[in-house]
Here is the input.
Amino acid sequence: MRELSLHLLDIAENSIAAGAKNITMSIEENSSTDLLKLKVIDDGRGMDQDTVKKVIDPFVTSRTTRKVGLGIPLLKEAAEACNGSLDLSSELGKGTALVVTFQNSHIDRMPLGDIPTTFLNLLVSNPFVHWIFIYRINDKEFFFDDEEIKTTLGDVPLTEPEILKVVREIIDTGISEVRTKNN
Amino acid sequence: MATIKSLEDLKRAREEALKKRELKASSGTVQVIVGMGTCGIAAGARDTMKAILETIEKDSINGVLVTQTGCVGVCEKEPIVQVILGENPKVSYGKVTPEIARLIVKEHVVNGKIVEKNVIQL
Here is the structure.
């Protein structure tokens, strides 16, 4: 995957698969510390410590009972190549928090890519998850909580064209405002 | 985030969508499912889904539910899109580029005509 926003989409799929009802995804760029921090926090079923280790480093442990993908190890490698790190903490029955940092200006740092599409796809195709998306550059922030939108919509799905247009515009505008205000 | 103005817009959009859905209610529901496992995403599923949503928005296609699923076990055929039209059996498509996705929406979802050349058997 060539975009961090694709990795975020992939990580969120783990949260969905873990039965999360609430998922918060945030992207924070800070120019004074030169850090890019990505977080995905969920209240899914969580993992025990053995599983956490295996998910991070699937080739090292001997456990073979669970099938795990390569999404997290690949992201960890990408972060470490940019003086960053990946931290995965999880508790059974409580949820999982994944935090990845990168040296923002590092030459090998993957581009963020199409963030609005990642947000919109997750929101629209997982209507039973309560989503919070945050995109922050320094002190400018786009904070998106889908609760108000879902209350307003009631039983009308997000995939109706009229609704898609409004929601897509809220996300597109929010993200581009954070970007322009920082230039 | 959601300003007063956008909430007003949303309410208006909801009313509009409701009216159109009533008109369409008799033709049954359509469900479009996009495979979003790591394999799907790596193969381009995000842009496939983007193309589906854009087509729904641009062509004002009401009454379609777009959802996602994880890996369905045929990673080499990703991105995979499945269409369920009313009571009909599920039709699966493989290697669905954004271009093919637009075609599937226009032909299958809107006109009920299966895009045979991209159908796969799961």
Summary: The helical segments of chain B are 4-24, 38-42, 45-58, 98-111.
